[in-house]
Amino acid sequence: MSHITTYSGEDFDPIHPDATKIHITDIAHALSMMCRANGHFSRFYSVGQHCINCAVEARARGYPKKVQLGCLLHDASEAYIADITRPVKPYLSNYIEIEERLQSLIYQNFISEPLSSEDFMQIKQIDELMLVCEFNALMRKPVFDYQPDMVGRINLELESLELVCQQYIDFWTELSGENPESVLTDYSFLSVGIDGCKGKWLAVAISRSGYEVNLFDDIREVCTHYENVDSILIDMPIGLAENIKDTRPDAELRKCLKGKASSVFNVPCRQAVYQTGYEASSNVNHEIMGKKLPKQSFSIIPKIREIDHFLQTNPVWKNRLLESHPEYCFSLLNAGLPVLENKQTADGMTKRLAILSKYYFQSHELLGAFKAKYPALSSKTDDLLDALSLAIMGAIGLKNGFHSIPSIPSEDAKAIKMQIVGANL
């Protein structure tokens, strides 16, 4: 076999490398999985974390961005050819030649301005000093008899593979000044996931050729932008009861999400949605459905009303824009087990991102694109992951088929199906 298969699924020939098949996601993933010192440290410490520390030190020293990028990428060839311990390298002349050729191509691919001899000297110096720091801290016996004078804050703590991978991509996005987001030129197999975010709609679109992350003011803008979409799922109630006999899927969905049932809100009836004010909406809902409205349910009424009105006035989107639920999507992607960690905590986000990455290798990269494009929304990572889960669910459904809760959904008075959509895995 003349090639390796990368994390992204590329067939890559390390001897005759093709620059178009070198992806920052593959580099970040592979380096986060590789241990420094050939695995002989007292605990796991990845090449990816080493590269991030080098870039942090270059920044602390005031070196230009291209040197910081060089530090971040200086071991990137190892993502494709692994590493050989220093005492052995001089005896493997072919390896050194292969490494230098590949590393040079990576620099050319990801650093727009050529690195000078002085730049390379600074990168090498930081790499050597970082090695001393790491060996002094992580070897079981002293290796060096001095402590290097480091300017930056070096993180030698044990970090999760997912976090290091994400930090690597985030750092690359920031330093390169580029958005890792691909422009969608081929809309085949286009799947869109939508979630509410800061009063707007956050849409994640994925296709065979790339992805997009966009904010829209209203649902009409979203549907106009993705007019030719193959699957479009949204985390918002669609199909509204108008009497006690109308049955939405909420109760059945709660049974599928043991431990996360509280994430499924009570959906107001259509008459309550078009009332003004909490008291009026709650009273009307109690009168018709026999239940008062929780404040959480009332808080999303403007979005429910917006979608309901849009579908009634744009019948081409009726039963095409479909309701799903992120926690249901995560449970399906997690072998049927709901993700119990709070989605707004670091643990919850890390767990969800790891699940999404198993099905869509560009998940970390897409998250970096979101933060780069909308830095003011960096705290809304949970909304991004929710929208991405819907997009991934749609993409899987286009391939394997969809199912719904309930299996045979009923329609409301406006001929809109009341259902939660999921993909067959």
Summarize the entry for a quick read.
The protein contains 17 helices and nine strands. By secondary structure, the chain is of the alpha/beta class. The strands form three sheets. A five-stranded mixed β-sheet has the order 5-4-3-6-7, sandwiched between helices. It has a two-stranded antiparallel ribbon with strand order 1-2. The protein has a two-stranded antiparallel sheet with strand order 8-9.
Structure description:
The protein has 425 residues and is α/β, with parallel strands linked by helices. Helices cover 46% and strands 10% of the residues. The strands form three sheets. Strands 5-4-3-6-7 form a five-stranded mixed β-sheet, sandwiched between helices. Strand 3 (191-197) and strand 4 form a beta hairpin. Helix 2 packs parallel to helix 7 (161-176) and helix 15 packs parallel to helix 17 (381-400). It starts with a strand and ends with a strand.
Total of helices: 17
Order of strands across the biggest sheet?
5-4-3-6-7
Mean pLDDT: 91
The share of residues in extended strands comes to: 5-15%
Distance between the termini: 31 Å
Low-confidence parts: none
Largest sheet: 5 strands, mixed
Q: What is the count of β-strands?
A: 9
Written as H for each helix and E for each strand, in order along the chain, the element string is EEHHHHHHHEEEHEHHHHHEHHHHEE
Q: Helicity level, as a percent range?
A: 40-55%
Outline, from the CA principal axes? elongated
Radius of gyration: 25 Å
| Helix/strand class | alpha/beta
